[in-house]
Amino acid sequence: MANSHSINRRDFVKVVVGFLGTVMGAVIGLPVIGYLISPATKVSKSDAWIPLGSLEDYPTGVPTPFSFTRSKINGWEKTVNSYGVYVLKTGETEATVFSNICTHLSCRITWHEGDQEYVCPCHDGRFDSSGKVSGGPPPEPLFEYETKLEEGILHIHLLEG
Amino acid sequence: MTDEKVMDWLDERLGLTAVYNTVLDRNVPKVNWWYTLGSATLFLFILQAATGIFLTVYYVPSPDHAYSSINYIMNEVTFGWLVRGIHHWGATLMVITVFMHMLRTFFMAAYKYPRELTWLTGVILFLSTLGMGFTGYLLPWNQRAYWATTVGTEIPGTVPFIGDFLMRILRGGTDLSGVTLARFFSVHIWFLPATILLLIGIHLYLVIRIGISAVPHTDD
To answer: How far apart are CA B168 and CA B179, in angstroms?
Structure first.
């Protein structure tokens, strides 16, 4: 029998054990991996227009900070995230709104009136009043929100996920 | 064959063959299925340890979040229901196998000389397993858990003179509170598992060193 084409007993057992072992490993291993990476498979989305107050209250030509909070459910708890934006009123009915998140590594920038620049405290990233990079490591300009004016109230479009 | 060479290399340094011969290839008398309950319990302990470790990824032992974190495990986490389900049913099953293992040892008179220490460590292992059941029962922080632990801690409270003190030690204060939940969690995942692991080591060492007893004969 050893020279025939048929598989011998020892090799047969090896193949069967290997196959069953793989199946059992997968049956146990895959749910475990799924269990561990489960939260990463769910991306929370938000799509909302956030009111920033009456536009006429903002000074023209001076970046003015505004902050708001949004809450959402993460796992078993309600997470409250705070957002900061800079409103630059450019006309009676126009404004540009920048996120205060530095495009380098997400530290929060502040407007420095003396330098006429947004400065990031982490790595000295700098942006001019139109949001363009004027120095330091940031790879791209500040994020600019889509805006709309409704009955004198300035809104920004918050899109996430 | 290269894998044989690798095995030989490892064996020469680790002594795997000797370990295998001593632990798995030792002589045992002709026994029956009742003698597998110890191994079954060991398997269940490993299963409980593994699923328990995975549950701590999401479970939070605080009154604010314990119940909701378990809800999250059951309803949101992929296969969370399976991991918790195995831990839940494995716990019950382990108490059963430990108890049957003890009954078998008793009725087969296997606790006698020279196996008294095996029996004694087994008794502590049995009590530790019940302790795991008692502390684990509170962790879901639902009505059943809360009132079971209220009653369970009330029982030592009836001990003369020191009862109230014992109850306050168990509860971590006069009332059942977040302190109780935290200390039950700690005992459940650190103190008792460490104790059980140590005692299983001794228990198994004794089983391997002395060997298991044969089924007693009517003439014995």
So the answer is: 11
CATH of A46-160 among 3.30.565.10, 3.40.50.2300, 2.102.10.10, 3.40.50.300: 2.102.10.10
Cβ distance A36 to B76 less than 8 Å, yes or no, reads no
A123-158 confidence digits (pLDDT tens): 999 999 999 999 999 999 999 999 999 999 999 999
Task: List pLDDT tens digits, range B22-79.
Answer: 999 999 999 999 999 999 999 999 999 999 999 999 999 999 999 999 999 999 999 9
What whole-number distance in Å separates Cα of residue A104 and Cα of residue A64? 22
Nearest CB to A76: which of B54, B68, B78? B68
Distance CA A102, CA A80 (A): 20
Say whether residue B83 is in contact with chain A using an 8 A CB cutoff.
Answer: yes
Distance of residue B212 Cα from the nearest chain A Cα, in angstroms:
30
ipTM of predicted complex:
0.86
In a 3-state reduction of DSSP, which class is residue B184?
helix
Contact A35 B69 (CB under 8 A): no
CB contact under 8 A, B78 and A41: yes
